[in-house]
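User: Hi! I have a protein structure encoded as tokens and I'd like to know what sequence might fold into it. I'm fairly new to this, so please keep things simple.
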């Protein structure tokens, strides 16, 4: 049961956390790439700063944010009449709380990659679209998204692999609790291998994780090749 709970949690980390991270990083990159944006370097630094901040410092800050009483998040919810939950000790909210923290900490790295991809798109394509009367959404859909396809594939792969390796956040914040609702496969592997010294079990978990990541990577690469063809 513990293995399947860890497998389910890891799947939720990937299915929910990876798309949110990609969307947040793409949105930030598009916003920073807009011609009217000022202080672009300062904003880029502010968004990237969580990536290089140590997880222990981030965890301490977010623990205060998630405090049931007096925490900034529940205080803000209380201003609009919502009674906030006990985030890190609730079986329902502990997993979303960790995912939210992980998205905030990691999206800046992908944002820099997307920014590099956006700056390689020829300006002539957007100028031609302006002459044709295309709006912002049409230009984003028909120019930005297709031209960013290789960048998006790379970002998707590294983000998916990163969330499959989800370890530090639950280890520092919840230790896999409550009721194993934030237990990831890597944390389970660490527990079994280095705490209980069940090396064979830990190796089996590691091999299972490798097979799953390898299979999903192949599927994404083949899908990208078909779309390119």
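Assistant: Happy to help. Inverse folding works backwards from shape to sequence: for each of the 229 positions I chose a residue that suits the local structure. Here it is:
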């Amino acid at each position: 049961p513990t293995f399947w709970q860890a497998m389910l949690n890891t799947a939720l980390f990937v299915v929910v956390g990876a798309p949110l991270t990609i969307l947040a990083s793409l949105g930030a990159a598009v916003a920073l790439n807009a011609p009217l944006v000022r202080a672009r370097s300062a904003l880029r630094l502010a968004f990237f700063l969580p990536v290089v901040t140590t997880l222990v410092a981030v965890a301490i800050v977010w623990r205060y944010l998630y405090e049931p009483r007096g925490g900034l998040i529940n205080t803000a919810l209380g201003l609009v009449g919502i009674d906030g939950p006990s985030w890190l000790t609730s079986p329902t909210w502990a997993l979303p709380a960790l995912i939210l923290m992980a998205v905030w900490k990691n999206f800046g790295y992908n944002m820099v990659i997307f920014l590099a991809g956006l700056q390689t798109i020829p300006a002539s394509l957007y100028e031609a679209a302006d002459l044709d009367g295309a709006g912002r959404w049409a230009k984003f859909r028909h120019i930005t998204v297709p031209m960013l396809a290789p960048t998006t594939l790379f970002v998707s792969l590294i983000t998916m692999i990163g969330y499959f390796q989800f370890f530090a956040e639950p280890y520092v914040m919840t230790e896999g609790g409550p009721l194993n609702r934030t237990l990831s496969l890597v944390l389970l592997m660490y527990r079994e291998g280095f705490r209980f010294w069940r090396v064979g079990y830990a190796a089996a978990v590691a091999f299972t994780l490798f097979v799953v990541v390898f299979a999903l990577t192949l599927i994404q690469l083949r899908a990208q090749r078909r779309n390119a063809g």
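A useful reference point when you look it over: The mean pLDDT is 90. Feel free to ask if any position seems puzzling.
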